[in-house]
Structure to design on (232 residues):
């Protein structure tokens, strides 16, 4: 191979390198994507945030609202349930059992209705009842409260609507169950300081002297005479 041919190969190699380097420089200039000084979507979270670790909070109980709940509004909320439940006394079962006397009725025991295995197990042989607390939690999320229940209702998420619905269900009885303590105590807790809740009996005054409590016909015990002072 003579020197002229060798020079051609070297020249071609250098030209190729020059073209490749030029393309690389131009590409960097066109498609360069420098990292931003500050991220555009920075998400800051406080260390040890308890709310993030514990998950969603438990739903608010509707029981304290029962004393002021509206039966009429509850009946309107119950229209979501009429496709599956009857409410009249002695009414037939539909997709769900009849709801007459539902408050404090043993769970999964209504005659003639086929309950899911999950609800039968939850009822513990009928020892667990549909008291106000169980109704409140079940109506919030049936499948969330009783895993495996066949009830497909999504639940009543609003606390005030749930209270109205439970107040309406309470009226489906010849002898409505008393309100729970949480509802009965709510008005007293809201009374201004120094004022007794409505219906409370006035406080009686203490007797001015112990003798006032002595029964009639009994004489008070006389005081012992004072002993004479010793002679000086």
């Amino acid at each position: 191979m003579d020197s002229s041919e060798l020079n051609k190969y070297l020249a071609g190699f250098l030209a190729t390198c020059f073209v490749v380097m030029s393309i690389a420089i131009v590409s960097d200039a066109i498609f360069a994507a420098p990292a931003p000084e500050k991220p555009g979507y920075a998400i800051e979270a406080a260390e040890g945030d308890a709310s993030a670790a514990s998950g969603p909070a438990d739903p608010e109980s509707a029981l304290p609202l029962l004393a002021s709940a509206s039966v009429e509004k509850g009946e309107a909320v119950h229209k979501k349930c009429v496709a599956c439940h009857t409410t009249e006394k002695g009414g037939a079962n539909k997709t769900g059992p009849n709801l007459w006397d539902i408050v404090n009725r043993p769970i999964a025991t209504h005659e003639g209705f086929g309950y899911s295995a999950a609800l039968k197990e939850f009822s513990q042989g009928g020892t667990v009842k549909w008291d106000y607390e169980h109704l409140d939690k079940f109506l919030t999320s049936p499948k969330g409260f009783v895993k495996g229940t066949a009830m497909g209702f999504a639940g009543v998420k609003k606390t005030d609507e749930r209270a109205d619905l439970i107040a309406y269900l309470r009226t489906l009885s010849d002898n409505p169950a008393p309100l729970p303590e949480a509802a009965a105590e709510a008005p007293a807790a809201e009374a201004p300081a120094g004022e007794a809740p409505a219906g409370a009996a006035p406080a009686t005054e203490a007797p001015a002297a112990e003798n006032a409590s002595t029964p009639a016909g009994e004489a008070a015990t006389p005081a012992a005479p004072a002993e004479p002072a010793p002679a000086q």
Q: What stands out?
A: The first helix runs from residue 3 to 31.
